[in-house]
Structure formats: C-alpha cells, structure tokens
Amino acid sequence: MARTIVNKHFDESSKITREQFHENIDYAKGEIIISNEENPSIWVLDANGEVKQITGVGGNDNGNGGSQGGVSSDELNALEKKITDAYVKADEVVISGVTKGYTDADLRLKKELIGANDTFKQEVNMTVSKIEEAYKAADVTITQSITTTKEDILKHTVNGIELKQNPVLDATHISVGTYSELVLDDTAKENVITNDTAQVAIKKVENMNIASSLAFAAGLNDVNRKVEALIEDDLDNRLATIEAFKIDELITKIAELEAKVAKLEGNTDVTE
User: Do residues 187 and 270 both lie within one domain?
Assistant: First the structure.
C-alpha cells in the first residue's frame, strides 16, 4: 500500500518559528519543517527546544539562533530513510492492527450475527410452534363447540318432532291453538284482512258462515211461509169452485132422476 509523507513546509524560512511545531515538546522534537526557498532547507528543534536549520545553504536565525547545520547529504539521506522507514513501519503496524482489528471485528460480527441468526431462528421456531399448538387447541375447541351447538340445535323439536329427524310438516301438524275460547272484539273487521293470524282468520270465516246460514234459513222460512199462504188461499178458492160445481151438478142430476122417477111412476099406473 503506497503512502505519501507530507511534512509541514513554508516558502520562506523566516516563517519557521517555534509556534509552527507541535505544542508538545516531545512531539515537536520529532518534527521537521521544510523551507521551499530558492535554496531549500530543513529545520528542527534542538534539545533546548530552539529552532535549528540542519541542512541547506544560508537561512535566517529567525530570532531563534538558527544556523546552517553541518549534516552531510549522506547523513541527511540516511535520516530521511530512517524517518521514511519509521513511517512505513508505523504505517504497517497501523495497517496490520487495523486489518487485524477489522478481521477480528468481522469474525466477532459474523459470530454475533450467526449467533443472533440462530437465536432468531430458535425464537421464530418456538413462536411458530406455540402458534401451531394454540391453533390446534383452538381448532379442537371450536370443533367441539360446533359439534355441541349442532347437537343442541338438533335436539329442538317442532310439534314434538326433533329436528335431527328432518321432519316434514303438513296440515296435520298445524294447530289453531285455544280456538274454542277465542272471541273477536267489536273493533275487529268482519272480513279477513292482511296480517290476521290463521286462528283469527278461521274464526272470521266461521262467523261469516254462521251468519250466512242464519240469513239463508230466515229467508227460506220466509219463502216457505209465503208459499204456504199462496197454496192455502188457492186451495180455498178451488174447493169453493168445486163445491159450487158439484151442487149444481147434483141439483141437475136430482132433477133428472126425479123426472125419470115420475115417468116411471106414470108408466106403471097405465099398465095397471
């Protein structure tokens, strides 16, 4: 993994002061600051915390007693390599630690996820099992309830016949109830109307039949009386006519007989 090391740098060495280094002296002593002037130079802090130029030509003391250092190019390259190697090693340590941390964290996470997944599966399976058990129990309860309700319903009767016998009702199963004691009030209409019960309707029909029979009987009696009166009057007239006719006829017959008797008597006298 490539890494670029960037040090703090300024275009003018006069800007390189103590304040540009880390405030912690222990950290600051390990820092280097680069001046990018025409003649570049490198600056560090000495044991006393003073800013010192360790390489490059010229330079300013910056009020810190800075001066050109006596470090050769080979020493500088060696220092640079050492610093670079240190950075690389530190980077490798960091990367290794991070990688290991990532790996360990990944393994832990996987284990936790697997464990959580197994736990979740177990919980789901337990919940499903409980639901199935509850469903079966409820199903048995409902089935038993339906069976019991069905049996109770089939025990009900219609005109004394249980429903489980699937009874077929006809006119013989229909009762008019306490019909003999039924008396219609004065406000009831004489004829059968909508919403009348069967009992009331039959009573109305019966009353209308009785009334019709009484009216018919009264009318028939009246007709009989009138016929009898007519027959009696006609019979008297006929008898009178017959009697008158028979008397006249008898008188005539008697006269004829008397004439014949007289004639016979006259004939008898002559013969003697």
Answer: yes
Query: What is the C-alpha separation between 168 and 26, in angstroms, rounded?
Result: 112
Give the up-direction half-sphere exposure of residue 29: CA atoms within 13 A in the CB hemisphere. 6
Residue 181 and residue 272 in one domain? yes
Q: Mind listing the pLDDT tens digit for each residue in 136-150?
A: 898 888 988 898 898
Backbone angles phi, psi at 10, to 5 degrees: -135, 155
d(CA 272, CA 270): 5
Cβ-Cβ contacts under 8 Å for 174 (sequence gap 6 or more):
198
Is the per-residue pLDDT at 171 higher than 90?
no
Tens of pLDDT, residue by residue over 51-61, are 999 876 555 55
Q: Give how many domains the chain has, as a whole number.
A: 3
Instruction: Look up the domain containing 58 and give its range.
Output: 1-71
pLDDT at 238 over 80: no
> Is residue 264 one of the residues assigned to a domain?
yes
Among the ranges given (60-74, 167-181, 189-203), the one the predictor scored with the smallest mean pLDDT: 60-74
Total residue length of the chain: 272
Cα distances (angstroms) measured from residue 226 to each of 218, 222, 229, 237, 238: 12, 6, 5, 17, 18
Sign of CA dihedral 27, 28, 30, 31: positive
**17 belongs to a structural domain:** yes
Query: How many angstroms from the chain centroid is the CA of residue 112?
Result: 42
Side chain identity at residue 171, one-letter code: A
User: Is 266 domain-assigned?
Assistant: yes
